[in-house]
From TrEMBL:
Entry function: Neddylation of cullins play an essential role in the regulation of SCF-type complexes activity.
Name used for this protein in its record: Defective in cullin neddylation protein
Gene3D superfamilies tied to this protein: Cullin, PONY binding domain (1.10.238.200), EF-hand (1.10.238.10)
GO CC terms, sorted: nucleus; ubiquitin ligase complex
Compartments in which it is found: Nucleus
GO MF term list: cullin family protein binding; ubiquitin conjugating enzyme binding; ubiquitin-like protein binding
Keywords: Nucleus
Transmembrane spans: none
Disordered: annotated segments: 1-23
Organism this protein belongs to: Cryptotermes secundus
GO biological process, one term: protein neddylation
């Protein structure tokens, strides 16, 4: 999840100062009202969940939590916006756009998790991370990430920089050949990745040995992965398992 851009004090006018003070007051109220010491065993309360959501939205758009609210939400639950657990949470909500939660998405995900406060979400963070260990669930999250991270929803492809960042987030720690694949993308002609390529990258990472010994040149892999294998063999950078 991206961080929002902050304006300096020199860029702010009197009205901005008032809004900043009001927002700071709301945020202080939020921390006090939804403290980390709450009882996590209390039943889920939808009204409370919506009230909590509104602590991260603006009066001009109360039904959408945007980048500034997202940053504050992440700060409250103690998670960096770029942490993979935020992607899992967005998947739970079936959020459509990176950096934003609508009220409907917020309720969908947090009702499923039975969370209506900071402390309850914090108590679920380990559970959300553990979901990544299940291969079927991980595949669902991985596929979801493609549509979620695309900046332009009208185009079917994802720009290469966003794709590399998401692949690092999802496969960087688990795929031995990820470093080489990332280097290949850096040097390649590819400017975008389509969904077929995206899905096959995961399949490749799961099924092809580090030394490429079981790679079938006549298989139905996308050209991108054929080229990666050729590049890797040419660079003599294949890691022996």
């Amino acid at each position: 999840m991206p961080r929002s851009k902050r304006r300096s004090a020199a860029d702010m006018g009197p009205d901005d100062d008032d809004r900043h003070c009001n927002k700071r007051f709301r945020n202080t109220t939020s921390v006090r009202r939804f403290s980390k010491t709450e009882d996590t065993s209390s039943p889920f309360n939808q009204k409370r969940c919506i009230t909590w959501f509104r602590e991260y939205t603006s009066p001009d758009d109360p039904d959408v939590l945007g980048p500034e609210g997202m940053e504050k939400f992440c700060e409250d639950i103690g998670v960096e916006p770029e942490n993979v657990v935020m992607l899992v949470l967005a998947w739970k909500m079936n959020a459509r756009q990176m950096g934003f939660f609508t009220q409907q998405e917020w309720l969908r995900g947090l009702m499923d998790l039975q969370c209506d406060s900071i402390s309850k979400v914090q108590s679920k963070l380990d559970y959300l991370r553990l979901l990544l260990n299940d291969q079927v669930t991980f595949k669902s999250i991985y596929r979801y990430a493609y549509d979620f991270a695309r900046q332009d929803k009208d185009q079917r492809s994802m720009d290469i920089e966003t794709a590399k960042a998401m692949l690092q987030l999802l496969l960087g720690k688990h795929w031995t050949l990820f470093g080489q694949f990332n280097n290949f993308l850096e040097r390649s002609k590819y400017k975008v990745i389509n969904k077929d390529q995206w899905c096959n990258i995961l399949e490749f990472s799961r099924t092809i040995a580090n030394d490429l010994s079981n790679y079938d040149v006549d298989g139905a892999w996308p050209v991108m992965l054929d080229e990666f294998v050729e590049w890797l063999k040419a660079s003599k950078d294949v890691r022996r398992s």
